[in-house]
Write a structure and sequence with these properties.
The protein is an all-alpha fold. It has helices at about 20-40, 45-55, 60, 65-75, 85-90, 100-105, 110-130, 145-160; strands spanning about 80, 80-85. It has a two-stranded antiparallel ribbon. Helix 6 crosses helix 7. The termini are far apart.
């Protein structure tokens, strides 16, 4: 039996997802809901993400634990020192602080708190684009690494940052 084959009629292509894609989507969905509930008061926004990161002890942020994910996002969204078409497809809105995200990805802003905020804003856009249907427009193709890195970043954040901050 193919996982999710029963919803293939309403979600074309879902039955063609690999087991790895299924796992990446499940991990991302679970970890996002935990992150949003535990860290953002069940109401995500860029403002709340920023406030949360700014409330974290600097020693936690300066640990280098999210560098792999920053590198991944920079490699994905920057070519020749400038953001590319994939960056535009994040559909960052003005209140998503696109200038900060761009500066972080291009290496203009190397402040660790800003870098973490920038990465989490990208994850927030993945969440919005996935949960609100934009990612479905092309059948979730080319997304496994996005969801894998996002889920890993969220897991690390939940491990590193005390819930009560």
């Amino acid at each position: 039996m193919v996982p999710l084959a029963d919803i293939e009629r309403v979600a074309p292509g879902v039955a063609n997802l690999s087991p790895e894609e299924h796992e990446a989507l499940q991990r991302f969905t679970l970890l996002w809901t935990l992150f949003e509930a535990q860290m953002l008061g069940s109401n995500a926004s860029v403002r709340k993400i920023t406030e949360k990161v700014e409330s974290v002890e600097p020693v936690i942020i300066h640990g280098g634990w999210f560098a792999e994910h920053l590198d991944y996002f920079s490699n994905r969204y920057v070519e020749g020192g400038n953001t590319n078409h994939r960056f535009e497809n994040l559909h960052l809105r003005n209140n998503d602080n696109p200038d900060l995200v761009r500066a972080v990805l291009t290496g203009e802003n190397v402040d660790p708190a800003s870098q973490l905020i920038g990465c989490l804003i990208i994850v927030y856009r993945f969440r919005n684009n996935f949960f609100h249907g934009i990612k479905w427009a092309y059948g979730l193709q080319d997304q496994i690494d996005n969801f894998t890195h996002s889920a890993c970043l969220l897991r690390k954040f939940l491990e590193k940052v005390p819930n009560g901050i």
